[in-house]
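Deliverable D4.2, example record:
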Amino acid sequence: MEDLPPIIVKKIIKKGGHHGGAWKVAFADFATAMMAFFLVLWLSASTSPEQKEAIEGYFKDPIGFVEGGSPNPVDLDGSAAVVATSSADQQDTDIEFQDEVIEDLAEDISQQRLEELKEILEAKIDQNETLQEFKDQLLLDITPEGLRIQIVDQSKRPMFDSGKSELKFYSEDILIELAKTISQVPNKISLTGHTDAQPFLGREGYTNWELSTDRANAARRAMVAGGIAETQVSRVVGLASSVLFDNDDALAAVNRRIAIIVLNRKAEDEIARNAGVREAGVSEKTKENELKLESGGWFDEIDELDPGEVAW
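Output generated by the structure prediction step:
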């Protein structure tokens, strides 16, 4: 057999296309970055100044923002996110959730400001000669409505003469000094007058309800003189002895007091909302009564009632 020439097999390994697949990964990263960028722009354009301030406050001091609470800015309490049935529903859910988070951040900022104001007022009470003398009659605490400052009576140093609504000169000085600091914050305030349970016998038809209201209004006038704007006053209320400071002694001097509350945003909104409901209710009731009066409807309703059901 003749010797045949050797057969040489050449294997050519192709390395793919002239570009490869790396560009797809780069493009995906670019698309993700652009989507995030436009989402940030959209959120920036759709948020209110208060919400922007809340977000800015978190990124400036994230640790201070969550101090005493959850270590995470968004606490899901261990629950998993619910997958929406469509991309549109998911987007709406995300927006609502983001709004809730921003609202919570804004509330935290409001609370933090009230804590800072409390510290400022406490320092002022220690340093100011007018306030220092009455330090034991000034009580500061944080309530669900905001920062509460109570000026309480002492047996030998009352804010008002017995049965009177005119402030003692030193009581007026206290309110004016407090107003100088409180007027520097944007929060609205609530003023409440309280009496002890001793019945008022000075004037016929004039009770502790009227007296406590008149005293709260006298405090309002003093604080306006100290720099509080009229528009900063959200509520002036007299509660007589319905909310005692000392429940064990209804006649104790400490029950006679003026309470000033620097309202947080939630309390401000609640007061405004309730006022709006009351005004709307009064308006509708007035229209209803006018129509009944014109048509004789009141008398028709009375005629239809059993005489035993009518209480005059």
